[in-house]
Write a structure and sequence with these properties.
alpha+beta; 11 helices; globular; GTPase activation; phosphatidylinositol-3,4,5-trisphosphate binding; metal-binding
Length: 375
């Protein structure tokens, strides 16, 4: 019975406001705890805490034995108290990961909070908040697919991220305007746990570059430095906007990615397998997931502007190997796609519906007008 008493007390503590979600990634029903930090966490985050034993010692709320002193410490702290302490000075642009995010983001967030105490001491935020950053990243070559070390420079003052093919090169190989920059973690696609995909617009077409750093902290610092630069750019571009309005625009994950088959504008050509990426209203297709440039891009507008998505293909369609069709209707033409499985088809339809059901913003009309679809 004595053993049950601490467990019962812990179960009650889990019902307190703040303790019902993981302190680090907001996963529901956390059943682990750090008895040195006083936080309730999920199984995944407990694994990361185990890697910093000098800061955090973890136990299962249900399976391990607890003594009264440890339970009292948990009662005196808890997730809300810890948040007030360890997250008191988070810059608005800093990306706070949640449970669907990749391992690297969650690990560096936990280390930043408890090990490095970056959100207690603002001077520790220099690597991503200074407005200028330079360093070496491994970048995938456009033609041969090899990763080579390249110098990158991010400058808010110049409004650009640049990279150089040689450290002493005077001229950059590419200048990416902060205005059109996006960064998203793509570990499985790139084949590296620290893999980051950076995209920018070149002549109104999307250009991808794929980078990583051996040190996970460096990669995450670059990611947050890009978000900081975008935040300060948007503050100037939209002087009346609040942080709440701007933060969702700093970086974006793709709505959906994967293989589909497509046919050309005449719809008599054979269907070809392509890698598709749905990035906001741009549906891009590539021969290979790691291509630098899309073979083509399709603008997906809103239902008010006569865009719609239909399940299936027109009855006369031929040449598709995959059975699960999708038709996208735009004011100019129909686009025909085919998916390998029904679940793929339904996921793509859901992603398209999400975009089509959202009214277009004034600046999106300009994008639509500029949009040069490559057939």
């Amino acid at each position: 019975m004595a053993k049950d008493k601490p467990r019962k007390a812990l179960q009650e503590l889990l019902q307190r406001p703040g303790n019902q979600l993981c302190a680090d990634c907001s996963a529901p029903e956390p059943d682990w705890a750090s008895h040195t930090l006083g936080v309730f966490i999920c199984l995944n985050c407990s694994g990361i805490h185990r890697n910093i034993p000098q800061v955090s010692k973890v136990k299962s709320v249900r399976l391990d034995s607890w003594d009264d002193v440890q339970v009292e410490f948990m009662a005196a702290n808890g997730n809300n108290v810890a948040k007030a302490r360890y997250e008191s000075k988070i810059p608005p642009f800093y990306y706070k990961p949640t449970f669907p995010d990749c391992q690297l983001l969650r690990e560096q967030w936990i280390r930043a909070k408890y090990e490095r105490k970056e959100f207690i001491y603002t001077e520790k935020q220099e690597p991503y908040s200074a407005g200028y950053r330079e360093g070496l990243l491994w970048k995938r070559g456009r033609d041969n697919g090899q990763f080579l070390s390249r110098k990158f420079v991010l400058s808010e003052r110049e409004g650009a991220l640049k990279y150089f093919n040689k450290n002493d090169a005077k001229e950059p190989k590419a200048i990416m305007k902060i205005e059109h920059l996006n960064a998203t973690f793509q570990p499985s696609k790139i084949g590296n746990p620290h893999g980051l995909q950076i995209t920018y617009l070149k002549d109104n077409s999307t250009r991808n570059i794929f980078v990583y750093h051996e040190d996970g902290k460096e990669t995450v610092d670059w990611f947050n430095a890009i978000r900081a630069a975008r935040f300060h750019y948007l503050q100037v571009a939209f002087p009346g906007a609040s942080d709440v309005d701007l933060v969702p625009k700093l970086s974006r994950n793709y709505l959906k990615e994967g293989y589909m088959e497509k046919t050309g504008p005449k719809q008599t050509e054979g269907f070809k397998k392509r890698w598709f990426t749905m990035d906001d209203r741009r549906l891009m297709y590539f021969k290979d997931p790691l291509d630098a440039f899309a073979r083509g891009e399709v603008f997906i507008g809103s239902k008010e502007n006569s865009y719609k998505v239909l399940e299936g293909l027109p009855p006369s369609t031929q040449g598709n190997h995959w059975q699960y069709g999708i038709t996208i209707v735009t004011p100019d033409r129909k686009f025909l796609f085919a998916c390998e499985t029904e679940s793929d088809q339904q996921e793509w339809i859901t992603a398209f519906q999400k975009v089509i059901s959202r009214p277009m913003l004034p600046q999106e009309y300009a994008v639509e007008a500029h949009f040069k679809h490559k057939p």
